[in-house]
Amino acid sequence: MKKMGIVLLLALVFLSGCSRGETSKPTVEPTEPAVVEPVEPEPEPEPSPVMVMDESPVVFQIGDEAEEILPVQQALYLMNYDVDETSIYDEKTEAAVLAFKLTQEDLIPNGECTEWTQERILSEAERRSINEPDSLLVLANKTYYLAADYVPEDLVQPDVFNYYEDKRELRAPAAEALEILFTAAEEEGYKLVFRSGFRSYDIQKIIFERKVKERGFEAANQVSAKPGQSEHQTGLAADITSWSVKNALDEAFGETPEGIWVAENAHLFGFIIRYQIDTVNITKYQYEPWHLRYVGIEDATRIYEAGVTLEEYLGEI
Known about the structure:
By secondary structure, the protein is of the alpha+beta class. 38% of the residues lie in helices and 10% in strands. The longest helix is centred in the first third of the chain and has 20 residues, at 2-21.
């Protein structure tokens, strides 16, 4: 019996030792491997462009006189620089060239006219020339200009009350529309007067130069168009007035019953008030409630309802 007890004791010790040596293994759920997004390398900064300054030969400088100077002066004049068309590279021309070169990053800022400068001035003037002057939406202003020899082929005299003995002309579509507008105004008790229509390049030049003598170049350029930049040369612009302001072209016209009626109804006949009181910074001209511009009924209505200038309507600002 004693021997049997020892055997049982040893068996229990063995079994307990085995149970203490065993450990339970935790169950591990399989997981998806983490996806690492590739990191895009930052682009290297582009090198700054190397500015090539104008080192072309000087072609004109102060005191020079040559026929080739005249086209440069004409181009600068149309780009609203104060120059005289003399074919002499005088102080005004030198100052205008300097002012132009200050607008160009690669032209040395001085008054000498180099080959690059001459080419740049002439190409910029060419870029601003109007290619479709017969369009009813033609834009003639301080940026885009008409050729000196442009005269519309369909000029006629509108049958309306005219202030001058020599009858003023408009292009046929504008003349017909003005007749209808005047008739409609009179039917509602408003008597209008036609003051000015088509003006040639040469006539506009005389008018502008007279303004310069009276007021100086900068002031004249705010109230009168340079030749080539005037809407009157298109044959689509009509200056109108009334007896209420003694037939004058005066801002007061906009406050008269006639002027108010025109402002509210001109678009119905294809006209817009071209130079509004709050658009001087866009049109670059003073308020002119008397200046009508024909664009056609559809476009005039859109411009009127949107309350924008012709520049804004055409996306040219």
